[in-house]
Write a structure and sequence with these properties.
Length: about 110
């Protein structure tokens, strides 16, 4: 079974190669949101500069659309803060998808 990190890497590599290169017009954007910290001190510092619990792993910016992507393994579950973030994003009219593989990402994006 692939790790979340490996699934996320596969997604970013696929998307960048297919939609984010200089010759793509318009050029899309995909990036990760580093929202985990190893220490309590680091967490407090990141929160002070705007880190938010539950933010999706990836953000994809397409023409006239922003998609928030949460990556999980086959058995992975969203935390309460991730579910809250999903509801907030959807209430604002944006697309939020949870994916467990590159193939599922391709289908949903």
């Amino acid at each position: 079974m692939k790790t979340e990190s490996k699934i996320q890497q596969d997604i970013v590599l696929y998307y960048r190669n297919n939609f984010c290169l200089n010759h793509h017009n318009p050029q899309h954007i995909i990036f990760s949101v580093p929202n985990e910290s190893k220490s309590k001190r680091e967490t407090l510092q990141k929160k002070a500069i705007g880190m938010m619990s539950g933010v999706s792993d990836l953000i994809v910016i397409k023409p006239s659309e922003i998609v928030f992507v949460e990556v999980k393994t086959e058995k992975g579950q969203q935390s309460k803060s991730q579910k809250k973030f999903e509801k907030m994003v959807q209430a604002l009219g944006y697309k939020y998808i949870l994916v467990r593989s590159l193939e599922e990402f391709k289908e949903k994006i």
